[in-house]
Amino acid sequence: MAAALIDGTALARRLNGELKAKVEVLATTGIVPCLAVVLVGDDPASHTYVRSKSRAARAVGIATVEHRLDAQLAEAELLALIERLNRDPETDGILIQLPLPKHIDVTNVLKAVHPAKDVDGFHPTNVGERVTGAGGIIPCTPMGAMFLIETVRANIEGLDAIVIGMSNIVGKPMADLLLSAGCTVTVAHIKTVGLPAICRRADIVVVAVGKPGLVRAEWIKPGAIVIDVGINRITSSDGEKRLVGDVAFEEAAGVAGAITPVPGGVGPMTIACLLLNTFEAAISRRAASIRAG
Ligand code: NAP
Q1: Which superfamily does 31-114 belong to?
Q2: How confident is the model at residue 177 (pLDDT cuts 50, 70, 90)?
Q3: Which atom of ligand 1 is closest in space to residue 271's alpha carbon?
Q4: Alpha carbon 111 to its chain's center
Q5: Residue intervals in the chain for CATH 3.40.50.10860
Q6: Does domain 140-268 have CATH number 3.40.50.720?
Q7: Arithmetic mean of pLDDT, 67-79
Q8: Nearest residue to 139 (alpha-carbon basis) of 266, 248, 25
Q9: How far is the C-alpha of 183 from the C-alpha of 206, rounded, in Å?
Q10: Contacts (Cβ under 8 Å, ≥6 apart) of 130
Q11: Whole-structure pTM over 0.85, yes or no?
Q12: Which residue from 96, 175, 187, 165 is spatially nearest to 131, judged by alpha carbons?
């Protein structure tokens, strides 16, 4: 393997350690940041993610309240819960675990979360502020990916970047962050023609598609930074279940300059950034009471 391994687990551990120290200082003012996690239905992967997020939050001293709701829950009931959490003075962040069951309109739900408590950065107010450079809470996965890129190269101005996948939660905000950092950005998607050749021009490749092994060695410019956001559960030929990304890791690592593994790359950083956003939301919303104290 020629590429340097970008270790998301180690970076997340360091960021979590720094955050824990800040949370302890905040606790001396009587404030414990609190994250409400809302999970509808029984998707096993979502339950695993929620457990990991809650465990990580507790480890840094952030309180969590989990709302595990029946898959048949009516949208109106979910909106009513979000409204209660919006008004609850003890709740600093609200995370709606996606995907939601098909009968619930995800746009309605994400719009219902108060922008100041929208620690995923999905509310149109936060999206608009981010895109116009007016601030806004940054979505956790792209934020984590930017931290990882920074460990390889602090200044990415002028580099060619490609983001493969254009979802609202990963691809589009990722492209926007790379643009803000001074990259020339291509966003590729299912209808992109000639993707391997376009990808091979990029100094930074971010893949968020959900297709195991989509990006092959010959798609990658020698020395490029490769960030694999994909999380795919596959069963190997020996019957073993495991997680893989969207990049054919072994062969790509022979060409790339630096590459994230799956697991252990973007995943832990997504959680670390969620905790950072929750802490920042608590500080912003409770600034007056912190000053008064
Ligand atoms: P998504 O909403 O399904 O979006 C996937 C995107 O990829 C869409 O824009 C889709 O285009 C595009 N696409 C599909 N097939 C393609 C192809 N062959 N070539 C190019 N583009 C293609 O998924 P997501 O929520 O962004 O998640 C993407 C992956 O990242 C999943 O594996 C997910 O599990 C993972 N993920 C990981 C983390 C983490 O913390 N590591 C966080 C979030 C997501 P169309 O819209 O045109 O179909």
Answers
A1: Leucine Dehydrogenase, chain A, domain 1 (3.40.50.10860)
A2: very high
A3: 40
A4: 18
A5: 31-114
A6: yes
A7: 98
A8: 266
A9: 13
A10: 121, 136, 137, 138, 173, 176
A11: yes
A12: 175
Per-residue pLDDT of 16-65, as tens digits, reads 999 999 999 999 999 999 999 999 999 999 999 999 999 999 999 999 99
Confidence of residue 72 (pLDDT cuts 50, 70, 90): very high
> How far does residue 156's CA lie from ligand 1's centre (Å)?
24
Report pLDDT for 195. Answer: 98
- 53 as an active site residue: the answer is yes
**CB-based contact 130:136 (threshold 8 Å):** yes
Q: Is 120 an active-site residue?
A: yes
- Closest-CA residue to 217 (of 259, 258, 253): 253
Q: Ligand 1 site: residues with CB under 6 angstroms?
A: 141, 164-167, 169-171, 188-190, 192, 208-211, 214, 229-232, 266-267, 270
77-86, 90-99, 283-292: segment of lowest average pLDDT: 283-292
CB 92 within 8 A of CB 66: no
Residue 170: other Cβ atoms inside 10 A: 25
| DSSP-assigned letter for residue 104 | S
Region(s) of the chain under CATH 3.40.50.720: 140-268
Res 288 pLDDT > 90: no
Cβ neighbours, 10 Å, residue 117: 24
Q: What mean pLDDT comes out for the span 92-115?
A: 98
Structural contact between residues 19 and 276, judged by C-beta atoms closer than 8 angstroms: yes
Supply the pLDDT for residue 1. Answer: 73
Q: Does residue 72 have an active-site annotation? A: no
- Active-site position among 92, 117, 118, 120: 120
CB 231 within 8 A of CB 245: yes
Q: How far is the CA of 140 from the centre of ligand 1 (A)?
A: 15
- Interior/surface letters 253-264, b for 16+ CB within 10 angstroms, e for the rest: bebbbbbbbbeb
